[in-house]
Amino acid sequence: MSSIQYTADILACYKSILKSSVYRDIVYESGDLTGYKVIFVPYVMHISPALLEKLASAAKEGATVVIGPYSGWRTDDHTYFTDHAFGETEALFGTEVKDVAHFFGQHAAYEAFGQLGELETIGAVVEKGVGVIRGGYYDGMSLIAENCVGKGKVVFLGAKLPSGQMDAFAEKYIAESVRRPVVCEEGIALYVREGDGKQYYCMVNMTAEPKKVRADAEYTDILTGELVQRGPVLPFSFSINVLYAGYEQCDPLHYAGPCYKKAYLWHIVLGGKGIFRCNGKEYRLGKGDMFLITPTDYIFYQADERDPWEYRWIKFDGSSVQYLLGNAGLSNQVFSLKEDQFVEAVNGFTEVLDFMRDETAPYLRATGRFYMLLGWYLQNFGEARQQTEDKLSFVKILDYINRHFTEDINMDEIARKSNYNRSHVYKLFIKNMGCSPKEYINNLRMDLACEILCEADYPIVQVSSRVGFKNYISFVNTFKKKYGILPSQYRKSIGAGGKEGEKG
Predict the structure, then answer these.
(1) DSSP character string of 356-382
(2) What is the pLDDT of residues 327-344, one digit of tens each?
(3) Which of 34, 297, 328, 329 could in theory staple to 383 by disulfide, Cβ–Cβ 3.0 to 4.6 A?
């Protein structure tokens, strides 16, 4: 017999919505639904008269209201309806619920949105709707019904769908109602804000890997002020996590180690004295000194017997820490601060700790402040300043190329944007990417060409111009050199390229 695993099921439902690259809110029953294009009401067993009125009003004003799965099953007394109906909620569905097989346990095939899946739970069924149950007692009936209400519609979903079909279900009704000028890969958190008559799209890569974002309209980069043409963008992924922060007024001879630490630890000495040993080297430290511990350091540190130190500390980790610190030559080092630097650093450490103690989004606020502190650290104490500047400039170069590779860009333009000569840009690419700028641009163009060949039936010559090639023959030769086959052969091999491919 099947059952509802409430937490897992509702999270799976929300995950399908997340994949659709739209901004979303979680709204309480008492909240205002005005202005929302699509409203999902999943796993709300009892829909109160007040909520029902709000949902009906939202639909009349043009919203798509999706009720279910397992919503509206219970009465005001939280009992199940005995007549297999859904009370007043059913009137919004525009069709009669024929049966309710709560935890029926019968496996049946279900066809919807061009996909065929197996249902573990039948749920509530209607006589006709979107998609059909194949086999079993409910053969020919449906779990989904649509009803036009005012300017919008109400959609009834009688039971949970298999994950792939739930993705398609959410995508269908979101795509019908919401214009998405920005489409993100899974793992990108998208936030949309409005102000000054403009829309602002803020994207945060929540993974440790680079992710693709596609803009279907021209937009302005709010960081650079640059107008960017539509097309793919590859945002860099920087992941750093603040784990803990604290303050210690040490007792005489208080010590830690000798040992390895599992995460990074960053200390700033506020007063007093102590010793710090790292990988066989010993440092005598006092007010205004900082020391950084990495997971590869064998360390020992101890407060002075007569004048024990006090310090603030931050513990952190993340996939990007080694990249940011190691490549800037900042690992395994001790630094002495000037007075103005000391004040600024202490303020940063203090605010990170204060944010960690704050009940309002402590992790996000502490991490944001730590990023600022780390940026200040990199700016002031990089041993290899040229190397640091090269890294920052190279990120900007890659960002520019990722935005403009479908255009007619060349080495002179790239060099001008980076304030370096052509030779230095070439060396940066060889060092960081293992290829020349031209090879990197061509790789981006080939990736996009494959994507277009898979998804659309444009003529090959049109694909060539879309990805940035002025010369069709050059595009074909570059494609064959990289993949070993012609673009037309590639299209046939993946079964795409128009209606014939879609039939299979």
Answers:
(1) HH-SSSHHHHHHHHHHHHHHHHHHHH-
(2) 445 555 788 888 888 998
(3) 329
